[in-house]
Design brief:
The protein has about 425 residues and is an all-alpha fold. The protein is built from 21 helices and no strands. The protein has a single domain, classed as Sodium:dicarboxylate symporter (Proton glutamate symport protein, Orthogonal Bundle).
Length: about 425
């Protein structure tokens, strides 16, 4: 009897493991060889980027069609306001809890203290070549709060769609596209007619086509993941991880506490489902989120799993998950708060209670507005650093471990989106049984 084909998420996990092992071997044996750097730059990394680019090219039409359909399918403006309000309230409460967990851990463990002067100099000597200057420059060009809020309302949604993933684009980007999509869905709800039914069917067709494109791209996932992870581990190795081990452990500890304790409590007591069964059904989503470091890239998988395995109605999952891919970034908020306090400790800066409260508020707000793409939080961290008197260039200290932590916090972000969808569905009277 022939063996059943290997499940897709198992293939992705194998790719992840192969990438890690080969990357560590390459770092240990060939880190001083210029040929390794050439291979990473010109072969391995581009191969991994092929997979990511195919996914990214589908993100904009997916967000537009899924969010517009999600709003339109609600059918009732009062229901839209109710579900939107519940999603926002859930996001603010859970994001605040995540930041407070991270801030408590970093104040107790104090991961930035105890480094020698030579270690500090060795780390800071990488600033000129690590890309920190570019990040600082982007942060220095940041707009005022008022301007940022205004640009969420797009003058030209096509321009925001074009520039959404351009690191130099200064417009509203993904949030502006989401705002436009919400209004399209809202107008579709208010202007029901035979002609708008045609447009709604077109949106559904677009959604189906985009999901098929992503399904095709996911066949490349095991190979893309192996290349992406190999690139990270071959460059990172174990030395930098050991030097910044306490920082990594604090971030990971905070993420695990929020994931396994806070989310489990919400699922068990507020949703009424088994956390174990919930996490078991999320295996594919968690692996995809970890390997790609992007809530936006993971969105198609999250939508499919939430509807097929968790039985959340599409009208709720499309709205909550699409909005959450950018607006519900619990892991990112926790990471930003921990990173700012860690770097302040690193420089010997003792932040007052008021300054730490500023960091908490900034991290909560940033967690709602940070782009769901790899490295999207770095410019925000620079801004918060500068606001409490820590040099923005110090962001270079955590560049070496940012990728692996980015992968980890994306798991929390995506799991939080799905937990929010479960809670909203339960509050709307949906029957959620994970048998």
């Amino acid at each position: 009897m022939p063996k059943p084909p290997l499940a897709q998420h198992n293939k992705i996990f194998i790719g992840l493991a192969v990438g890690i092992v080969l990357g560590l071997v390459a770092n240990a044996l060939f880190s001083d060889y210029p040929e390794l750097d050439w291979l990473l730059r010109n072969v391995i990394s581009p191969l991994g980027q092929v997979f990511l680019r195919i996914i990214f090219m589908a993100v904009i039409p997916l967000i537009f069609s899924a969010l517009a359909l999600g709003v339109a399918e609600l059918g009732d403006i009062r229901q839209l306001g109710r579900i939107g309000g519940k999603t926002l309230a859930f996001t603010l409460v859970l994001t605040s809890i995540s930041v407070l967990i991270g801030m408590t851990l970093v104040n107790v463990v104090k991961p930035g203290e105890g480094l020698t002067d030579s270690q500090r100099q060795a780390l800071m000597s990488t600033i000129s070549t690590s890309g920190a200057q570019a990040t600082v420059q982007k942060a220095a060009e940041a707009k005022s709060v008022v301007q940022t809020l205004l640009e969420i309302i797009p003058k030209n949604p096509l321009a925001d769609a074009v520039g959404a993933f351009d690191e130099n684009y200064r417009g509203g980007g993904i949030l502006a596209i989401m705002f436009f999509s919400l209004f399209v869905g809202l107008a579709l709800t208010l202007a029901r007619s035979e002609r708008t039914e045609v447009f709604e069917k077109w949106l559904q067709g677009l959604y189906d086509v985009v999901m098929k494109i992503i399904s095709m791209a996911m066949k490349l996932a095991p190979y893309g993941v192996a290349c992406l992870v190999f690139t990270v581990t071959a460059r990172l190795g174990l030395d930098m991880v050991a030097m910044l081990g306490k920082f990594v452990l604090v971030v990971m500890g905070g993420l695990l506490i929020h994931l396994l304790i806070v989310y489990s409590a919400v699922l068990k007591y507020a949703v009424g489902v088994s956390p174990w069964k919930f996490f078991k059904r999320l295996e594919e989503v968690i692996i995809t989120a970890f390997s790609t470091s992007s809530s936006n890239v993971t969105l198609p998988t999250a939508l499919r799993v939430t509807e097929e395995k968790l039985h959340v109605p599409g009208r709720i999952s499309r709205f909550v998950l699409t909005l959450g891919s950018t607006a519900n970034q619990n892991g990112t908020a926790l990471y930003e708060g921990v990173t700012v306090l860690f770097l302040a400790q690193f420089f010997g800066a003792n932040l007052s209670f008021a300054q730490q409260a500023t960091v908490v508020l900034a991290a909560v707000l940033a967690g709602i507005g940070t782009a769901g793409v790899p490295g999207g939080s770095l410019p925000v961290i620079v801004l918060v650093l500068q606001s409490v008197g820590v040099p923005g260039e110090s962001i270079a200290v955590i560049f070496g471990v940012d990728r692996i932590l980015d992968m980890s916090r994306t798991v929390l972000n995506v799991t939080g989106d799905i937990t929010a969808a479960m809670w909203v569905a339960k509050s709307e009277g949906c029957e959620l049984k994970l048998e």
